[in-house]
Amino acid sequence: MPDRGQLGGQYGLGSKLGLQILEIEKMKRSSNKGFTLIELMIVVAIIGILAAVAVPAYNDYFDSARSTEAKQQAESLKKSVTACILREEALNAANYANCLSGNAGIPAAITANPGGNSTLACAAVVTNAAVIDVEADTDGDGTSDYNVRLTPTFQAGGQITWAIDEQGTVDACAGT
Asked: Which Pfam families match (predicted)?
């Protein structure tokens, strides 16, 4: 360790002042280790604010995706039902018995139940009057919490247009 005379000479000052400068530099080096409590609290507050903004946006995104999933299930049956109606030439009659779920190549139901611990079930079925219903039980209580309904309208010249009606909110509806 250098003696005090050498320290003072190093800074071009008297030995006492040189020693004080050395001690100040030593304190600076030892005090810059780690974060202060206030710095950590500021970081936690910023993360909390970001989470408060991001979580609702994230939920809206998934609600939209789940709604789209239910609509896609209904759309997947629409072509089959349209083909059946045209094939049966039932455009102006109320006889859709051959164009219901389970008949004429129309699936009995398109169901989705994600694996694991989820209790959600979605089902797309064709009911009387060739109406396509997709119902989702989002909370597992056995009742439909969300419904997408496609209803055909018969136009002149044999064309069919479809009206879509949505009710409720889908919390989850996985794969077909």
From this structure: N_methyl
